[in-house]
From TrEMBL:
The lineage of its organism: Bacteria, Pseudomonadati, Pseudomonadota, Alphaproteobacteria, Hyphomicrobiales. It comes from Pararhizobium mangrovi. This is Protoheme IX farnesyltransferase. Keywords: Cell membrane, Heme biosynthesis, Membrane, Transferase, Transmembrane, Transmembrane helix. It is an enzyme of class 2 (transferase). One of its GO terms (cellular component) is plasma membrane.
């Protein structure tokens, strides 16, 4: 029999031995790692200047491992509430396949390895930024805000928005307004993405005692904030074209993709109170993943396309 971990998307067999390699891989939150890698690569490519391809590869691996370390430490700390929620009960620590001490040691070793390697191979500014991001996610979000305030995902979401800035810093050794715009897109995307999930997983979070916005402020307030954040996020995604580090073609893509996002957020806003099916919320959650891929994919393709046109003398 095969069971799927809903959060991490990895199948595991019910008769696997404890602490298998796949269980340790699941500790790294591979879906989150994919997002981190993708946005970090975008930041690296868009940054002014150049980086040796091998050094760039090392940097991306370090950022990915650092994100995985944060995920492992998050699962270690949150094992008690993960075991209560149906969405996360199959994770390695609450299910007993990996002991808490193993998850803690695994996360700490990976965090140290990723930060030190990034500092020695790339630059210490980006390494310090990666270390700060890991600490922010584990201490500020996981250990402090997550169980304290319904605004947990707003403030804590900054950790997931830092990777494009870290990628930028790997090339330049600093950050800039342009890199902050990349951060802002992901930062503003995080609340509607997670609150859409929280709407149709409301009982799960309630059982675990996590004060997600729908459980504390109610559905109506959550739907209003989802719509508000969606509008501001869609506007921020157009900023690269306005500021000149992306072309009007990218701007058009961002406008269309953002309009679809806002429309789906509007459908959530209009969703009847107490609707158990939560179809609009599920659709918004699904599209939010596609949206971020569209925006950062378009930024990458736009930058590479402009570079080709300039090299060929067209621009």
């Amino acid at each position: 029999m095969t069971v799927f971990d809903e959060q991490d998307g990895l199948p595991f067999a019910s008769d696997l031995s404890e602490g298998s390699a796949r269980d340790f891989m699941r500790l790294l939150k591979p879906r989150v790692m994919q997002l981190v890698v993708f946005t970090a690569i975008t930041g690296m490519v868009l940054a002014p200047g150049t980086i040796h391809p091998l050094i760039g590869l090392v940097a991306i691996v370090c950022i990915a491992v650092g994100a995985g370390a944060a995920g492992a430490l998050n699962m270690w700390y949150d094992a008690d509430i993960d075991g209560v929620m149906t969405r996360t009960a199959g994770r390695p620590v609450p299910s007993g396949r990996i002991r808490p001490g193993e998850a803690l040691a695994f996360g700490l070793v990976l965090a140290f390895f990723s930060v030190m390697t990034l500092g020695l191979a790339v630059n210490w500014f980006s390494a310090a930024f990666l270390a700060f991001t890991i600490v922010f996610y584990v201490v500020v979000y996981t250990a402090w805000l997550k169980r304290l305030t319904p605004q947990n995902i707003v403030i804590g979401g900054a950790a997931g928005a830092f990777p494009p800035m870290i990628g930028w810093a790997c090339v330049t050794g600093s950050v800039s307004l342009d890199s902050f715009v990349l951060f802002l897109i992901v930062f503003l995307w995080t609340p509607p993405h997670f609150w859409a999930l929280a709407l149709f997983k409301l009982r799960d979070y309630g059982s675990a005692g996590v004060p997600m916005l729908p459980n504390v402020a109610g559905e109506a307030a959550t739907k209003r904030q989802i719509l508000g954040y969606s509008v501001v996020m869609a506007a921020s995604a157009v900023a690269p074209a306005v500021l000149g580090f992306a072309s009007p073609v990218y701007g058009l893509v961002a406008v269309v993709a953002g309009a679809v996002f806002v429309h789906r957020a509007w459908q959530v806003f209009r969703m009847p109170e107490g609707d158990r099916a939560m179809v609009p919320a599920k659709r918004l959650f699904g599209y939010s993943l596609v949206y971020l891929a569209i925006i950062f994919g378009a930024l990458l393709l736009d930058h590479l396309g402009v570079a080709v046109l300039r090299a060929s003398g067209v621009l």
